[in-house]
Protein 1
Amino acid sequence: MRNRACLAIVVSAAACSAWGQAATPAAGPPEPAVQVIRVEDESTRIDELRVRGQTLQIRVQPKKGGRTYEVVPPDGGRDPSQVGAGGASGQRVWRFLTF
């Protein structure tokens, strides 16, 4: 009788621990892959920010005078081969009053 009571306690403890593990929520989605790519030569430095493989920001810093400017990256949802689909893609943009 005593062995059955011990066996019942061990089985119920194992069931409770398995239930506790199953009740924990699964981990959320993985963090996005973020890349910061820097290309530098004697006259300029170009920093590119990519998230999940899509270019979000291109910043160009001339080393010998001139202000830093950004190049508008192409929109990932449009076909760049279509006429007029580019919009502002490839255009230079200067930021004023940045904080």
Protein 2
Amino acid sequence: MDQGKRTAPSGHLPNWIGLGVLAASVPRDVIDEALAAHWRGVKRRGGKLPPHVMVYFAMAMALYADADYEEIITELSQGLDRLGCWDAAWEVPGSGAITRARQRLGDAVLADVFDAVALPVADLLTPGAFLAGWRLMAVDGFEWDAPDSPANAEAFGYAGGSTNPSAFPKVRVVTLSECGSHAKTGAAIGPVTGSGSGEQTLARTLFPRLEEGQLLLADRNFYSFTDWCQAADTGADLLWRVADTIKLPVLEAFGDGSYLSLVHNAQLRGAARERLLEAARGGKALPPEHARYVRVIEYEMPDRGQETKRELICLLTTVTDPGRAPAPLLAQAYHHRWEHELANKEIKQVLRGPARILRSKSPEMVRQEIYGYLLAHYALSELRCRAATEAGIDPDRIKFTRTLRIVRRSVTDAAAFSP
């Protein structure tokens, strides 16, 4: 997959705002291509709420999470009217008309737009985005409460099972992100119960977006031999935590404290497993469908600052040569995975607000709404990352809340949305 970055103007944070942050990150031509693919662009082209405007409306719902539909569309139309891009006689549609326009748009267009624009945004000059030439990436998931409608309950289910169900239906979202910028570069949405509801299942659909030159970080919930192989076969390198109960034989000890080992298909047992181990001890090539060489890095971390309670961290990596990256460097890199957790909080707690549920009462609109949040967060992350890179600072030093406030103010003052 081509991960080439779009060209974008340079300058400090305020200079980006006047160029239309959201439209710069989500260009009109990308939206039109998605609309054409789903036959949406031919309908109501001259209406009050054309489909491409509703794509930007979905993003604006994330920017103005506390506003009602009429307030959101008013914010957009005022900004366009100042630029002479909107009919002065246009009247704000009611919430019913906006709801119907959202339903006509559906969720597939938003999904395609996100897949098209969600590329890594950091470059080699972005502090904290790379490690020894690898672009740091992470995968993880979060859950989001949806309105307690019969349709949402059937589509997404309740966490906790039948004995202790959650108060609202929950939607599981697993995302791939660039650690340095917090930009989400892939997303999969699914239920929390039933077949295909696990984080591993959803993450599996994101691995094809990985590329050579990336180092994917993942917590211990994601490891299985099959998933490890699928992710590694993309050409990306992996640095995953695994449970300390997994048996990892020492094939060769390295001077940095790490050691060479192997992982294998769990179905291999008894004599077949012993033959595989014997071949590995002899340094022979392993059948990739049955086993892979890995390097193991183990270290302890204090539990909440208490030296008497230490947690063992066990990491697997495809980087088997210690000369490419010594163990302390990779151990330090793994903790950049928390950048992904921070990005999740930016979406759920900053954009939407803490303990807030989504507003959509049907599964299709829930997915559309989530993609709107992902697109808005991507645009804000790209803005912050490019401004930080220009200033030579880590993007984390520019607060996400400040970026959001500036962009909210800009929507009615500048060309924040393409007409």
Protein 3
Amino acid sequence: MPEPTLILLPVPLAPEISLHLIGEPVGLFDLAGGEFRSDEPPPFWAFVWAGGQALARYVLDHPEVVAGKRVHDLATGSGVVAIAAAKAGAAEVSVSDIDPAAVAAAMRNAAANGVEIVAGEPAADVVLAGDVFYSPAVAPRMTERLRKARRDSADVLVGDPGRGYFPERLFQQLTAYVVPVPAALEETGSLATGVWRMR
């Protein structure tokens, strides 16, 4: 798959952060010639998703959630949530993603915003996850990862736009935002997106 053309753009719901994103109105699978190949994940990291935007906005507006703490951004994608945590005063921010290109994108975006993050999954006081319940295959694995973090005493916050696989019973809603999104990506111009804390 050819590398998509990226432009440094402000995040719609969190314009304090700029990310290298797809500039033209295309959908995720348009970049892969309309097909999904399991050996090469599509570039989720080239877009800023609603759940990540909402969680980033919440962290920027409530820095006490992360200030002075070790924070991990699980399934980081573009790194928007990790960057928000770093800007909000986290002591250390780490990122992980199943796609190594996403980790590289997060590092590149952090540098563009003048903050430092590290790759890896060390122990964390706070685990953040934006838009991770997007498929029936991925949701149970994410739920188990987040439940383990919670059992290990981490504070777990997620951003989710109601994609249908979110285990709402395990969470308490903190707030909601109407998040601007590319219509080519979501078939709508905005998504109501909740920020939730794992019980």
Protein 4
Amino acid sequence: MNDPTSRSRSGGGVLELLRRFKDDFALADSYATSCLEKAKAAEPVLKAFEYLPRDLTRRPGPLSGIPVGIKDIIATSDMPTTNGSPIYRDHIPARDAWVVERLRNLGATIFGKTVSTEFAWRHPGPTTNPWSSKHTPGGSSSGSAAAVAAGIVPLALGTQTLGSVIRPAAFNGVVGLKPSFGAIPRSGVHPLSPSLDHVGFFARCVDDVAYALSLLAATSELDPHGRPVPRFDVDVKEGVAPLEKPRLRIVRFQKWSRVEPDQQKMFEAAAAKLRDAGAVVEEREWEELDATNWSTVNTILSSEAALIYSDLVENYPDRTSDHLKSAVKAGKALTAFDYLAARSLQEKLRAALTAEMSGVDAVLTVPAFGEAPEGLGSTGNAEYCAPWTLLGAPALSLPAGFGKNGLPLGIQIVGSYRQDLRLLRVAKWIEGALAFDPGMPKIAAG
């Protein structure tokens, strides 16, 4: 019998497991049990879960037997949803979030709740990086990224408002996908900034996040920001078809000088390898996006977060963090003109994306400034993720190397708005061309 707990980026992921489980239900059941055992063994150091599952009963469906970690700002009707806050410590929602209900209907096993920063903002939870417990796993989807990297679950849900899927995926050495804005309904997902919030995924290979998106992309009348992406299917045996020899545009931004030398070196080596494999690679900046995205995205986020959280901060001053209080204060200091001007610029930049992507299949850039920073007091810098979140463009983080501390480094691949399948096909080709497998971390306290 194949060992169901054996994993690499190319094997042991969602599609590989589904192929193994097809004619061996006992293997599927033993796999779920082994995941729970692994989670319990890792938790004293990893601290990736707020809540572990009690029911591992396998359900029929295209995701039957697949355990999925659920970020703890996403509502679950059968287990607590704390939103990373002591205010909601014992809160059990009346109903599942849309995406959780959909996963259940697809046969997935809802494998507990993964740690989130407070309301998906900056105040970290206890999760550590599985490659070194002295370093952050990133955030806000801290537990989801760490749980996939540690091999506890093959798939986990995250959310991104600035960089909360792409950055932790890079820090933990896994694949992270932030689909186009509006691709997955957010009903039942606690909001931070509705004009920026995305639902995304963590997995170990491009095929797995592609499969997840193919099953979960939809619209719902409960989410007014929903934007349908063109439907596509992913073959369980073959995965997505790679887009051979894609045309890639490198975007560095002016902040490139602050990127750590190891990250720069790895990125240049990856770009050279892609050129050698047949990709057409050009260098072309986007000055207006570079100059305006950070102030624009923070104006939108602070304004909307202030509206959502001002009463909470006022009513629970002893149970809300300084990070959340600062966001509310910053939002209240902004005028209606500031907010509307930022939203107008967001729409202008998003409309310009089509022209900026003319003649190329994807943008190639970095997901972060380097390795996961040491310490658990911060989740890292989101400045390389924020431009693409502001635009709502689909983005994917792919493991591509290690830094001087032995921690993962990634590259970020960005596509045209609502052209998620094309992005995934480009990413599949890049994954094959780089042929990089970070392997599995040995979780240890240090």
